User: Fold this.
Amino acid sequence: MRDLEKLKQLVESGYSCISIVTQEESEALTLVKDLALETGRDLLIWSVGHGIREGLLSGQPAVADTEMPDPALVYFSHLEQSEICRTQDNTGHPKKKNRYPICVTLDLAPFLENKVTRRLMRDTLQKLSAVGGTLIMIDPTDKMPEVIKSQSILFELSYPNEEEIEELIKATLRKIHRKKPIEIGITKQGMRAIVRNLRGLTRRQAIKIIQSTVSDDRRFDDDDVNSVVAGKRQVLQGDGLLEYIETPLTVDEIGGMNNLKKWLNQRKRVFKDEAKDFGLTAPRGVLMLGIQGAGKSLCAKAIAAGWQLPLLRMDPGALYNSYIGQSEQNLRKAFRQAEQMSPVILWIDEIEKAFASASSQSSDGGLSKRMFGSLLTWMQDHKEPVFIVATANDIEALPPELLRKGRFDEIFFVGLPKSQARQKIFEIHLNKRKRNPDEFDLKALANAADGFSGAEIEQAVISALYNAFYADKELTTEGLLKAVKEAIPLSVTMAEKIQDLYAWAEGRCVPAD
Assistant:
């Protein structure tokens, strides 16, 4: 069921107030106008800049003295006596309609902080409810008093599906071509790739990316896939909720973690149609617990690279907003965006920072608990192939409901790397810095770095390189051993906490290595 049918269903079900929270105001207005035409009802639109005006007949004068919200709401509540509730028949004469018009407000929510406006709004909704009228609020944010929110229902605009995106691309290209000719050389495979990469964006955002893509060379071909991906990355980073992460890594570039690698390899093809035909459902995600710097974040990138899926990073801190209701809206928006881009890897980094207070008495008015509840509900109910990789350092801060079996396909504990893994990590970082690992005593280095995390080994290599560069010498095993000896790892400075962490994980998690 697409947006028009969903909105029509809400109106015909008798909802007196429908809230559309979106940055895409023109798209929402187009939808509401289509609704008015579909249902044969008049349409009245209010904004503080123009007052109340006819929404379907252009050139009609605005209703006098309705620029401010208070007289506009009073007007909406007395429409049965108003001459504005008229349209024209095919002879040009006014014709009264039997059905109550659809009333629309633009950016009304902030005005409802005023107690008089809020009272008038409540009175108006009561009147509309009694006569079968509907008021549709279109606002860019969910900043609305609870008493009004309780009387309204939230309607979310859907993202365009792949069929709509392809039509949108063609329409945009035709429009550009009419102004100044462009050359089209796209293949079917290239078009599918571009359509797939535009999923999860609004119609306006998709159009802007296509316009930007062809603006320089006046061509649209398979080479533009990279431009579309770059444009999408810029859009995603713009709202700060989801970040598109480059994934040059492979699983082989991670030292150790053999159990995790085996688990991932067994599920490598589960997002393909053949797995579905075999009766398998896509895995839902993994929770990576463990020591800071041990490679949990690296695993998220390696999973996306190994499975050849896009990686989106959710920043939990960016979800929270000072406006009432905005945080929940941000979370819903992030989830919807991830679903539209599926199959995809959704990386929730340091998940405990976002939802830690959900397990305690917090001072945020229950926001963390509501956000955590929304997360659990979505994890349980979502149907699209979105694979979650959640990482956490502080296990004690996690709400126990998150650790319950069934939330994730598996909970892995990422501990300090063992001897063989440490050798591999030294080899990886020496290769990265254009050094031949065969020229170093990797076994001696691994023994010296006992108790070091992968991140601490990398820092020891970097420190040794700085020392060698300063002394104008080549990097040697002795120089690396000296850097390792001078470093104090986390396993020493926080020995007691790490021991407790290992004790907690015993029997509760699957060792990653």
